[in-house]
Amino acid sequence: MKTCTPTRHVTCGAIIEGSNFLGQLAVFMHIFVAIAFILIIASLGSALYFMMTDKGKTKRMVWSLAMRVGLSISLFLFILFAHWMGWIQSTGIPLGR
Questions:
Q1: Which residues are within 8 A (CB) of 89 and not within 5 positions of it... i.e. 6 or more apart?
Q2: Where are its TM segments located (predicted)?
Q3: In whole angstroms, how far apart are CA 55 and each of 7, 67, 73?
Q4: Helix, strand or coil for residue 14?
Q5: I need a labelling partner for 85 at 20 to 30 A (CA). Which of 17, 38, 46, 51 fits?
Q6: For residues 78 and 51, what is the distance between their CA atoms, to the nearest angstrom?
């Protein structure tokens, strides 16, 4: 019977227990969250660009800001779902440091 020992993941430094699947999942989660943050910042930048160029004549800025809010809410809900499924673990903030 094979026992699983905790291994240290190279990219994030987190302790990952179990098979290699959890290590791959941790890498996927890091990449997914990074891409989501990049998309949120890009949407905010496009809203700034549309605000400066359109001068309020079109609704492109409003749509960009709505997309940013939608992406932010989706990312938050995905992180809650991933925690509920056990794909990510909360580590907490150590007190006294």
A1: 14, 83
A2: 27-50, 62-85
A3: 55, 19, 28
A4: coil
A5: 38
A6: 30
Per-residue pLDDT of the chain (97 residues; tens, 9 = 90+): 455 445 444 444 455 455 577 778 878 888 999 999 999 999 999 999 999 999 878 899 999 999 999 999 999 999 999 889 888 888 777 777 6
Q: How many residues does the chain have?
A: 97
User: How many other C-beta atoms are found inside a 10 Å radius of the C-beta of residue 74?
Assistant: 13
> What does pTM read for this prediction?
0.69
Instruction: Provide the 10 A C-beta neighbour count for residue 29.
Output: 16
Cα separation, 59 vs 50, in Å, equals 9
Burial track 76-96 (b if 16+ CB lie within 10 A, e otherwise): eeebeebeeeeebeeeeeeee
User: Which token pair is 36?
Assistant: 């989501």
